[in-house]
Amino acid sequence: MSMRVKICGITNLEDAMTAAEGGADAVGFIFAPESPRFVPPATVRQIVSSLPAFVTTVGVFTSGEEKDLRRAIEECGIGLIQFHGPFSPEAIRPFASRAIRVVRVRDEKSLDEIAVCGARAFLLDTHHDQQMGGSGQTFDWTIAAKATRLGRILLAGGLTPENVGAAIATVRPYGVDVSSGVEIKKGKKDPLKVRAFIKAAKEAGEAHAIAE
After folding, report:
1. Helices and strands in the chain: count of H runs, count of E runs
2. Phi then psi for 48, rounded to 5 degrees?
3. Do the domain assignments include residue 212?
4. N or C end of the chain, less CB within 10 A?
5. Residue 9 — left, alpha, or beta (φ > 0 → left; ψ -120 to 50 → alpha)?
6. Is the full-model pTM beyond 0.90?
7. Structurally, how many domains does the chain consist of?
8. Is there a catalytic annotation at residue 8?
9. Does a structural domain hold residue 139?
């Protein structure tokens, strides 16, 4: 199967279309007001309505009650929810079929969270004390490689057009996720880097025959 690529931290239609036209499988929108990549729900709705139907849309949340998440799904038209914060397994369960659970990797013990949380996929990101994501820092990919036997793994954390090929070769993930690695500045993507990242990821996926 083709390597899945998600471009996260989208804040405007231009960047979303660059990702879609470049072959991205998904785009992510940050619903956390404290993030420099936060985008208002009304803007998300406008962007989502303009995207090609084949592009999956993901809402990234660091907090929120079930009713708030359902409202975002309905009002913005997002397809999946990425849980990037202190959500309990019970909070995620109602959305299990459309949930991506973020696991912040410090060491192998971090993977224990995968076993207790039902989700459609798990996004492994670098643990950072000050930032929830978008730190631009990598972690030990051999840990991520061990996680692939536990479920669908999306690899994130410090990925760039230059290193994503090596990351895929090491981990063999279900997909890869990038935000800061393809930015000009926080919240604004570099079109050349976006296209280069997608191309490198897709080529690496083909070379290493990623399984469904």
Report:
1. 8, 10
2. -60, -40
3. no
4. C
5. left
6. yes
7. 1
8. yes
9. yes
Q: What is the pLDDT of residues 74-112, one digit of tens each?
A: 999 999 999 998 899 999 999 999 999 999 998 899 888
Angle 186-191-196 from CA coordinates, rounded to 5°: 110
Three-state helix/strand/coil letters over 15-73: HHHHHHHHCCCEEEEECCCCCCCECCHHHHHHHHHHCCCCCEEEEEECCCCHHHHHHHH
Does the annotation count 125 as an active-site position?
yes
Q: Which residue in the list 76, 125, 140, 190 is annotated as catalytic? A: 125
pLDDT digit string, tens, across residues 41-66: 999 999 999 999 999 999 999 999 99
CATH number for position 44: 3.20.20.70
Residue 115 covered by a domain: yes
In a domain, 152, yes or no: yes
- Of the residues 8, 25, 76, 177, only one is catalytic, namely 8
Two structure tokens written together for 138: 């990598």
* Residue whose token pair is 């998440």: 69
> How far, in Å, CA of 132 to CA of 84, rounded?
7
